Predict the structure.
Amino acid sequence: MYRGGYTGRMAWIDLTKKETRIAATDPKLTRLYMGGAGFGVKLLYDLVQPGTDPLGPSNVLVFAPGPLTGTSAPCSSRITVTGRSPLTGVVGMATSGGEFPAEMKLAGFDIIVIQGQASDPVYLVLEKGEVSFRSAERIWGTNTTDCQLFIKEELHNHNFRVACIGQAGEQQSLCSCIINERRAMGRKGLGAVMGAKRLKAIAVRGDGELEIVDPPRFNAERRELLARFKAHPTLYSEFGRHGTSALVDLTSEMGIFPARNYAGTGLFTPTDQIGYEVQAKDIIRRNPCRKCPVACSQVRVAQSGDYIGVLTEGPEFETSWAFGGATGVTDLSAIYLADRLCDEYGLDTITVGATIAFAMELFERDILTIDETDGLELRFGNHKAMIELIHRIAHRRSFGEVLADGALRASQQIGRGSERYVMHVKGLELPGYDVRAAKAQGLNYATAFTGGDHNRGYAFQEIFGVPDPIQVDRFIPDGKAELAMWNQVMEVALCDCPTFCSFMISEGLLRETEQGMSQELTEQKIGTVSEMVSAATAIEFSPSELILLGERVNTLARCFNLREGFSRKDDYLPVRLSEEPIPAGPSEGYLTSRAEQDGLLNEYYEVYGYDQRGVPTRERLRRLSLESVADDLEALGLDPE
Amino acid sequence: MKVKLRCFGEVRTAVGSREIILEVPEQTTLHGLLRLLETDNPQISLGVFEGYGFCKRFRVLINGRDTFTLQGTDTTLVNGDIVTIFPLIVGG
């Protein structure tokens, strides 16, 4: 039935029974949800009933690459993993690149659905379309590097690619993530879901390449895409050389590098200590994802500092911010070490850095005492305390136990007004852009279906100044609802379903057109993805269908969250951002008032076809082929109009 | 009047410093400043911006603001302004 792009097989894995059922990939699923994030959200909605314990056996983990993953499409080795997040309670979705995504497709699978809970630690081996269970007793307790190495040696094949958890996931820390190679399926605590299921790792091994149904059509588009990459003025020369690290400097110049738990934006801009030019001196090699000609990921070794000699792959911008700006640390080697430790323990760098920064602010404000922190002088800038806390969080040791489930839960435990200083949306700690002066980015934080997430609809128009589809002034809210939706829809339709690396949206994935967000112009812009997926699979995904796909997946994810009891009240930014202006720097004085947020939300719901409660209308759901979801919402008393 | 220039990437390499203070006449525009920079540093080719501040290789900010939100390269600088020239970056 499937001729290209898809393998046509999905694995239903029951850890409780240690059984696998291999099934055909449902054509209705591919037609309406394509792959990746689409598969994840649809299966999550169908399989996980409201109120399901995210750490119980009834939660699922859906690993899904897309139809282009494993083909020769550049920058296509990406995967999404989806489950109900134990950190937020809403959709937990994380993405990653590297080798694992393509290898999983070549091992013979479009989707892996993990259900149940093993009685003892296991890992899975997927090869030649088969799944087998192996005991993970001997590797339970290992870090992610040792775990990957052990599995490759046990399987007598170093070509296996492994996604696994470290000690943090085993401890069910809600700061944990899933690591493949040195990449992270980060945020949202999905490592804890694996840990709760006693699933230490998934090893995949494939052969060859996926068939492309129409190679001339596919290759013509591929060549055109590569030509656009080549013509890009800075893609290879700057991004390929520095990766995301340049954002430390750029956001500082813009006054949106959120320092000291968002209290010191503009007051603390340590670019001379941790900026990209300093980091560049430490690069020893690049480490591209499979089929990526750009190679933005860098391996660095600290040449100076208290932790001289430490090696890490990274740090990405977000990590530099979380362990630099957020915590006020200026020793670059400490940031490298923090990055490396998080990779080894299987911890998410943003959540851990932001949670430590939150605790530091409490300490500075005398809300936390040194007795409560078990002797740690948790002042901003104290990198020794930061490093020690990472160890303690991973092992849930002493004060690390308080922080091991993220900032919001820590504040609930600490009390004493500490909740004011939790920088989160829906329980997910905010990343490294101060959105008081970047309005579309802020609206995305507020409304992303995963919580305060920069990856669901990154406003590159505001952050990079790229005028595509339109040129915008980041300081003003006008027109930002429509732009936020456009970015969210494109993220899913162009990147997380087919799959392509999200970085490519602003770097050549879009065809050049005149500016504008009309249906007609958008369809022209996204023709490359439409062409490549259609040529690979022989299933025509027109540009208009891609737009509907993005709207459908975002809307279904929102409906999952509504079903879990989330609503408009959860679509607001933390109170600090609406009451405290940015204190200094180029964005000084800006805030995002509650009234401004209300106005933006009203517009956002309207452009999405939702009512003012944020509930999709019945008509909207019908247009997105989600009729039955309207009945689900009605049964819950949400009564879509 | 004095204007602070903050340089990144190849502009920094050419100028030799992250930050320089330039003494320029009153009423100098951004265009004038960038021309001056090119004249003093022939190895720099900024391609000085047609349109409003977005060019293919560089992003120029005045006090953290994109110049297209001001008067583009016609923006008149005032004493103490900070002009940032950054290679166009992408990613995130």
Q: What stands out?
A: DSSP finds two helices and five strands in chain B. The helical segments of chain B are 9-15, 30-40. Chain B has one domain: 2-87.
